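W.,

You were right to be curious about this one. When I first looked at the sequence I had no strong expectations either way, so I just let the prediction run and decided to look at it fresh. Below is the sequence, 179 residues in total, followed by the output.
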Amino acid sequence: MVKKATKKARKKRIKKPDPLKNGRPSKLDKTLKTVALNLYAQGKTDKQVADICGVSEASINNYKKADPKFFESIKDAKADPDKEVEDALFKRAIGYDEPEQKFMSVSCGMNQGSYVETIDTIHHYPADVKAAEFWLKNRKPDTWREKKEVDLTVNNEFAAKIIKARNREKTLLGGDSEN
């Protein structure tokens, strides 16, 4: 005797599709991961990496969500260029000295030619006010922020006194005054 499957029994047998396995296969393979991480290490943004790798920025974000190890690798890769820029900004904000070589042409005397001499010097780069300002605004925003927050709360008693005074003024002036 063959039993007919009820609706409830059929629903149990049907497997729901895995949402991560639907759609096109992912372009993210080991090679693409390596390329992307190298681009991040060069200081590229998500948009730039996506354009170079031939995927959308949304795909890059989906790869990050789907693969936590990849996301951590991206953070690590971004740390080096961020640190370099931070160090350069700090140096520019406070000023620094940089060794350099200057080349001087030295004459040997009357019509006897000349030779080039190398002189080691130190070039001083003065502090840059804009770099210092940028640094401070980001490191100490409460102190160096341009926008100051002003508290404009009104005391209810004071507001009530102003309204009473205006009403008295209107009564005394006959009610026609707009002020």
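Here's what jumped out at me. Helices lie at 7-13, 30-41, 46-53, 57-66, 68-94, 129-139, 141-144, 156-173. And, maybe more interesting for your project: The chain has a mean pLDDT of 81.

Coffee later to discuss?

I.
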